[in-house]
Automatic annotation (TrEMBL):
Entry's transmembrane regions: 18-38, 50-72, 84-106, 112-136
Molecular-function GO terms, alphabetical: phosphorelay sensor kinase activity
InterPro entries: HATPase_C_sf, HATPase_dom, His_kinase_dom, HisK_dim/P_dom, HisK_dim/P_sf, HisKA_4TM, Sig_transdc_His_kin-like_C
Pfam families, A to Z: HATPase_c, HisKA_4TM
Enzyme Commission code(s) on record: 2.7.13.3
Name of the molecule in the record: Histidine kinase
Keyword Transferase: yes
Entry-linked PANTHER family: HYBRID SIGNAL TRANSDUCTION HISTIDINE KINASE C, TWO-COMPONENT HISTIDINE KINASE
Keywords: Kinase, Membrane, Phosphoprotein, Plasmid, Transferase, Transmembrane, Transmembrane helix
Keyword Membrane: yes
Residues in Histidine kinase domain copies: 170-378
Length: 393
């Protein structure tokens, strides 16, 4: 007996088409019977029971064809196809066997047309019934698995939410309160000290205190978004301006790196003020993970009008990311390609909150390309709008 699990992925994916083809063969068998036995005479239909068998068999044949068509578009995974086919073949075999047993045990004067019609009816009805049972079972299994995954996902989200809320309370009560004290003393020093080295040190403390407070507030915004403490309000933000701004900021931090951009002008997406951090974090990663002999980061945008999205591609010339790590780097705690800031875990979380996706591709001939896909938004009338491609160097 053929083990369907031994089929290659391409063959398994073709199972719905094979089911449709099987139904088509049953339909063609009627035409073949007319050609071979009826010698293509129209009166042959009236002189035999073929017409009756066509009427009784057709619903099951068309059910098989529709079942294959539906299966191809149902969203059921190919891993369910093998069991569905087993049900189809099982139903076919059992019902055909029962009918052949009846024909043999209770012999009667039947001609070939009657015999073929009976067999075709048994095959169609058995296969259609088995296919229906297989599809019902596959859908039930898929719903059960989806429910199990939803429960596990909900428990994981609850656990992460508790952790993030605890982290948020530490930031709010300990870090921010501490920075308020430090900033207050730094302000007093700036006011009391003359313009000397000590005064400059005090100004540095004050400036960095403001930066730390700003970062903490941004992190708290991320945490509130992830834990849904407050409703996350998304607005219409200018992606083009954000990319330009973040490229300039990161380039000032890494002057030895060349940044090449080729982006659309006046592109707007769904996001918030943290989109700057998302783009900036990925740009910083690209700047750090570069070939020392070719310090270059390339930034391009690509519209997908059909999906209503825009993809931002940020490429470096480093060693790249192995295939088995392309998903792992976005998990919490992974720091191999994280250069600080919010990390790739937060990049993934925020892009997801915007209704987008982020993934990693290989950059030819070497390096990695981070792809950020976000839903497009229509720009406001005040902002003006063009969709031309603006190269920049």
């Amino acid at each position: 007996m053929v083990d369907i699990h031994q089929f290659s992925d391409s063959r398994v994916n073709r199972i719905p088409q094979l089911i449709i083809g099987f139904g088509g063969v049953l339909l063609l068998s009627v035409f073949g019977e007319w050609v071979v036995l009826g010698e293509m005479r129209l009166d042959w239909f009236r002189s035999t029971d073929l017409f009756g068998y066509i009427i009784t068999t057709s619903p099951f044949v068309f059910g098989i064809i529709y079942g294959g068509y539906w299966l191809e578009r149902s969203g059921l995974g190919p891993e369910r196809y093998a069991r569905i086919v087993k049900w189809l073949l099982g139903g076919l075999g059992v019902y055909l066997g029962i009918n052949l047993f009846i024909i043999l045990v209770f012999p009667a004067e039947i001609d070939l047309s009657f015999f073929f019609g009976w067999v075709r009816f048994a095959i169609a009805m058995g296969a259609a019934g088995g296919l229906l049972i297989g599809i019902i079972e596959a859908r039930a299994i898929q719903r059960e698995r989806a429910a199990e995954r939803a429960i596990v996902h909900a428990e994981e989200l609850e656990y992460r939410s508790d952790q993030l809320e605890f982290f948020n309370s530490i930031l709010r009560h300990d870090v921010l309160n501490g920075m308020t004290v430090i900033r207050g003393h730094a302000e007093l020093l700036v006011e009391d000290l003359d313009e000397d080295d000590h005064h400059q040190h005090a100004e540095t403390i004050l400036r960095w205190s403001d930066d730390v407070v700003d970062i903490v507030q941004r992190v708290r915004n991320v945490i509130q978004t992830l834990t849904r403490e407050s409703e996350h309000q998304l607005t219409n933000v200018g992606l083009s301006a954000i990319i330009t701004e973040e490229v300039a900021r990161v380039q000032s931090a890494y002057p030895e790196v060349t940044f090449e951009t080729d982006i659309h002008n006046e592109v707007h997406v769904k996001g918030d003020e943290l989109l700057n951090e998302v783009i900036g974090n990925v740009l910083s990663n690209a700047a750090i993970h570069n070939d020392p002999d070719e310090l270059c980061v390339t930034v391009t945008t690509e519209k997908d009008e059909e999906r209503g999205t825009i993809r931002t591609r940020i490429s470096d010339t480093g060693q790249g990311v192995p295939d088995d790590r392309k998903d792992a780097v976005f998990r919490r705690g992974e720091t191999d390609r994280t250069s600080g800031g919010f990390g790739l875990f937060f990049v993934d979380a925020m892009v997801g909150a915007y209704g987008g996706e982020v993934w990693i591709e290989d950059n030819a001939p070497q390096g990695a390309t981070f792809v950020i896909e976000l839903p497009l938004r229509r720009p406001s009338k005040a902002a003006g709008s063009t969709s031309e491609l603006v190269p920049s160097r």
